[in-house]
Every structure is written in C-alpha cells, then in structure tokens.
Amino acid sequence: MMAWMNEEAWKETLQSGYAVYYSRSRSQLWRKGETSGHRQQIEEIRVDCDADTILLKVHQKGAACHEGFESCFFRKVNAEGTVAIADERLVDPAQVYGKKSS
Amino acid sequence: MMAWMNEEAWKETLQSGYAVYYSRSRSQLWRKGETSGHRQQIEEIRVDCDADTILLKVHQKGAACHEGFESCFFRKVNAEGTVAIADERLVDPAQVYGKKSS
To answer: Is there a single domain that holds both residue A37 and residue A86?
Structure first.
C-alpha cells in the first residue's frame, strides 16, 4: 500500500512499532488497523536517497486493503494494458468494516 | 525507488517493456537508465485499489539509485530514529554519470 505520513504519524510509528499514517482526506492520524484490527507491525524501516519516501516492511495482520486483499496491489496490468485481479481476497470488507443497518 | 509517471510515461512503459518516468524537475520523460545504462526491465505491473499508484516489479540492471546503490532505500532507520547505510554500494556514481572536466 501507499499512504502518507506527517511528522506526528512518523514519530508515533517509531514509538509504537506499528504503522501510523496521516489521512489527507480526514485531516487526522490514521492508526492503520484501529477499526479493522488489521494492524501493521513494523519489521524494518528504510528511507530513500533524498529522504522524502519511507519504505515500511511490516508484518501485516489480515488484509491491508479496504477491499479485503492482503495488498492494495491486487490487480495486475497485462502487456496490452488490461487489468485483472491476481490475488485472493482474504476477507469480506462488509464483515470487517460493518454494514449499514437497513 | 519511487518516481512519478504521466500518461505518456505510462504508455511508453507498457509499449517498451522498460520503466519510463516523468521528471517533475525537468518537465520531461525520464527513460530510466538512458544515460547510465541501468535500465529497468519490466517483469510485472500492479496497480492499487484506487488506481493512483503503480508498482513495477523490474529486473534492475546495475544500480537504480543515483548514489550507486541497487535500491534508493539503502538506509535503514533504527528504533530510536537514527539512520545507517544498510546495503552495499554497487557502483561509483562519478564513474556512471561522469565527472566534470577540470
């Protein structure tokens, strides 16, 4: 998955040992897995050459993706540019995030 | 490494089978490895759930990083937030990109 951090998210990630992002749409910290339980335990942190991108190597509990796949990158692009699902769905998002009551 | 694409870069990546990015600083296509020879041959392309991030799995010839490492993520962040080089430098950037004549 790809997500954003601000300084607070970065510090909390280091301190807690779990991935914490910053939701730009909600303008708040996003403690990944807080609702779903699908937390990301940090195994290793790398930073790139110009120090503006962070790579987290994590132990992913359950599905990282809100669509129920382990990875958000569950779709493969074929040579001609068509797209197909290439991974198994692990969980039903409706079960994880809840259904709206009717 | 993390880099940007525009539509032209994306199309040329698909067509050529090699990674092509868009340099935002130079406002032009960046055919990765055109100068250094360190091209990235595409092995697989994935696209994420909201279709705004592309993951390229590539065969990296030589060093992807302009600092001479295979990956730009050659620095590891330790638990207390300190940073250390964790990989081997493959090439001398001055040899790859040329020295300025004196």
So the answer is: no
